[in-house]
Design goal:
Strands 23-24-25-26-27-28-29-30 form an 8-stranded antiparallel β-barrel. The protein has a 7-stranded mixed β-sheet with strand order 1-4-3-7-6-5-2. Strands 9-15-14-11-12 form a 5-stranded mixed β-sheet, with no helix packed on it. It contains 5 helices and 30 strands.
Length: about 500
């Protein structure tokens, strides 16, 4: 009984092995057309017809790819089929296929491990589909339109190097970005930097995950970049991969001023001139002037974009000032600060003026019958000097001239002189001092005077004054009744 069971077990095991072996063996396909996948009309189908039919049978194709275990290949197959090249490539006798889609009783089925064992090569189209660096080689027998996968090959594409430098023109210490993100199929990338003399000055390694690098240059000139990329097999890209940038040369600013030192220039225009500024590789398009006081505080600025780049400034206060100028070129670079474009100077206010005064004057004297005093109308004309002891507050004047009566004898020409201290408030002033006057009649006497003036400025600049004034002269040690004078005058300071 045990022997019979053992014999039966061995028979069953042998049948199982034989069955498995038969399934594992390559299936010999000797003829085609019995189980067609699509119905092809005509004897010689064209690639266009096959593409149209496959689009019509898209659902069947999806089902077949899923049964074959290649569901992820369905969409790339359908997408690439629209533009793929259909090659006439017969299936040779003995060629093996990994699997083939066909239909039996209207249902999509998959036959695996097939060998063409016909008497002659089988007319077919071959189509390649690429996915994930693999090439899938499909064959489509023309008589039946079945879809068969013949082989899968690993295809590591060559690296394509891309290098972009931004900006192509920049200024000293501006950031320069090197971008190799357009490089394709690369495992790693490098970029080398060369100066204008061809000397390598830097090398930077990059990766597909970190394809950008930023640098800067502190010297002007042209810099070139050479990129390199290798694929997964370590094969370098062969396409040109270069870039360059030009670092702009800054302009040179030259400053000239119309006075140095600027004596007596309060109220007078001073010209600051940067027209001598130059740019070696472009043109100067703007100059910025800055005026600083003695403490270094900026008190005024001027931005000019018009040639010849000058600024005319009127100073209303004496002091020590610093003027600086910065030139900008058409690339936005600015000149460095040097002694050529920075000057310190002193502006002083004019203190000394020449003075001329004229006007009518009443001079006291005796009546012709000597019975009392009287006045004679005349005119005076004096010249002299004016000096600011404390500008706009205190001044000193010294003048001399004559007074001419409008009547004859016994009235006579008189010499007048005075020295005054004047106090100023805004446009008005008042002065007092000592004077000298000669006799205006033979009966009057020569002597010292107390002289007083009050006046107001009719016009005033830092270099000229015009004033109306009243003047009174009282004699010292002589008869007031016969030696006083009143005058109304206009004086000019220049």
């Amino acid at each position: 009984m045990n022997q019979k069971k053992l014999f039966l077990f061995l028979v069953i095991a042998l049948l199982v092995v034989l069955t498995a072996t038969s399934f594992a063996e390559t299936k010999k396909l000797k003829r085609i057309g019995l189980y067609t996948f699509v119905q092809v009309k005509g004897q010689v189908p064209t690639p266009e017809v096959m593409k149209m039919l496959f689009d019509r049978y898209a659902d069947d194709i999806r089902s077949g790819f899923e049964q074959a275990g290649y569901a992820e290949l369905y969409q790339p197959f359908m997408d690439q089929l629209k533009t793929a090249e259909f090659k006439d490539e017969p299936i040779a006798v003995g060629d093996k296929l990994m699997w083939m889609l066909f239909k039996s009783q209207g249902k999509v089925k998959v036959a695996e491990d097939i060998e063409w064992a016909g008497k002659s090569p089988l007319p077919a189209f071959s189509v390649q589909v690429k996915k994930d660096w693999k090439i899938y080689d499909f064959v489509i027998p023309k008589p039946c339109g079945n879809i068969a996968l013949r082989s899968i090959t690993q295809a590591i594409p060559p690296a394509t190097c891309s290098l972009v430098v931004v900006p192509e023109r920049a200024n000293i210490n501006d950031p320069i970005t090197i971008d190799m993100s357009g490089t394709q199929n690369a495992k790693s990338m490098t970029v080398e930097v060369y100066d204008a003399q061809g000397q390598k000055i830097a090398t930077q390694a990059l990766t597909p995950d970190s394809p950008k690098w930023q640098t800067k240059f502190d010297k002007p000139g042209e810099y070139s970049f050479r990129g390199a990329a290798v694929n997964m097999e370590g094969i370098a890209a062969t396409n040109p991969c270069v870039g360059k940038t030009y670092i702009n040369i800054p302009p040179i600013c030259k400053l000239w001023t119309s006075c140095l030192p600027c004596e007596d220039y309060v109220g007078r225009p001073i010209t600051f001139d940067a027209s001598g500024s130059t740019d070696p590789d472009g043109q100067v398009v703007k100059v910025v002037f800055e005026l600083l006081d003695s403490s270094g505080k900026v008190i005024d600025t001027c931005v000019t974009t018009r040639k010849p780049f000058v600024w005319e400034k009127v100073f209303t206060k004496a002091g020590t000032y610093t003027i600086s100028a910065t030139a900008y070129d058409n690339d936005g670079a600015k000149s460095a600060s040097t002694d050529q474009n920075r000057l310190t100077f002193e502006v002083t206010q004019k203190k000394f003026f020449w003075q001329a005064a004229v006007g009518p004057m009443l001079s006291a004297g005796y009546k012709s019958d000597l019975s009392g005093s009287t006045y004679v109308l005349g005119a005076f004309l004096r010249g002299g000097m004016f000096y600011w002891v404390d500008p706009d507050k205190w001044s000193f004047t010294l003048t001399a001239g004559g007074a001419m009566p409008f009547k004859g004898s016994p009235w006579d020409f008189a010499f007048l002189a005075e020295a005054l201290i004047n106090g100023h408030y805004k446009k008005s002033y008042a002065g007092i001092g000592l004077g000298l006057s000669t006799k205006s009649q033979s009966l009057t006497t020569t002597g010292a005077d107390i002289v007083a003036q009050v006046g107001t400025n009719v016009f005033q600049t830092w270099t000229k004054f015009g004033s109306l004034f009243l003047e009174f002269r009282a004699p010292v040690g002589r008869s007031f009744k016969y030696n006083n004078r009143f005058g109304l005058g206009f004086r000019m300071l220049f």
